[in-house]
Amino acid sequence: MTERTLILVKPDGVARGLTGEILRRVEAKGYRVTALSQMQATQEQLAAHYAEHEGKPFYAPLVDFMLSGPIVGIVAEGDRVIEGFRALAGSTEPTTASPGTIRGDLGRDWGEKVQKNLVHGSDSVESAEREIGIWFG
Ligand code: DAT
Ligand code: MG
C-alpha cells in the first residue's frame, strides 16, 4: 500500500486563509490528496491525537488552541510522504523554521504558550494510521 500521512491545517492556518496555499504546496510536491475535510475538533479527538504530549507545559494551551476554530484534515498519499510532508512543513518553531518551508515562510512567533505553527504532519507510519483513524475514522 502507498504510504499515507495525516495533515491538519491548524486553526491559525484556516483563520489566516492559508489552506489553499498549504494544499498547493502538497500537490505541487506531487502528493495525492485522498481526503479533505473542514471540521471542528473535539476534546476527545485532541486527547487521542496529542496523547504523547499530555503533562507537558504546552499541552493545555495546545488543546485550547486546536479547539479555537475550524481545522482542515487532509490525507495525502505518496512514497515517503510522511517524511516529505514534514520536510515541507519545517521545524516546530516557526521563527527558526527554514525559509522555503510552510512554517518558515508563513509562520511566526506570537508570544504565546503554544507555538501556532499552521500545520500538523504525522511522524511515522504507525502515527499516520492511528491519526487517520481519529480524524477520518
Ligand atoms: P511537531 O508539530 O513539529 O511534530 P510536536 O509534536 O513536538 O511538534 O508538538 C506538537 C505541537 O505542540 C507543535 O506543533 C507545537 C506545540 N509545541 C511543541 N513544543 C512546544 C513548546 N516547547 N512550546 C510551545 N508549543 C510547543
Ligand atoms: Mg508531532
From TrEMBL:
Q: Which domain of life is it from?
A: Bacteria
Q: Which residues form a coiled coil?
A: none
Has the keyword Secreted been applied to this entry?
A: no
What EC number(s) has UniProt assigned to this enzyme? 2.7.4.6
Locate the residues binding ATP: K10, F58, R86, T92, R103, N117
| Any one GO molecular-function label of the UniProt entry | nucleoside diphosphate kinase activity
Cofactor(s) demanded: Mg(2+)
**Domain Nucleoside diphosphate kinase-like, residue spans:** 2-137
In Pfam terms, one family for this protein is: NDK
Kindly state which keywords UniProt assigns to this record, in alphabetical order: ATP-binding, Kinase, Magnesium, Metal-binding, Nucleotide metabolism, Nucleotide-binding, Transferase
Q: Which SUPFAM superfamilies match?
A: Nucleoside diphosphate kinase, NDK
InterPro entries registered for this protein in UniProt: NDK-like_dom, NDK-like_dom_sf, Nucleoside_diP_kinase, Nucleoside_diP_kinase_AS
Give, as one word, the top-level EC class: transferase
Per its UniProt record, what NCBIfam families does this chain match? Answer: PRK00668.1
By sequence similarity, the record places it as follows: Belongs to the NDK family.
Q: What is this protein called?
A: Nucleoside diphosphate kinase
**Gene giving rise to this polypeptide:** ndk
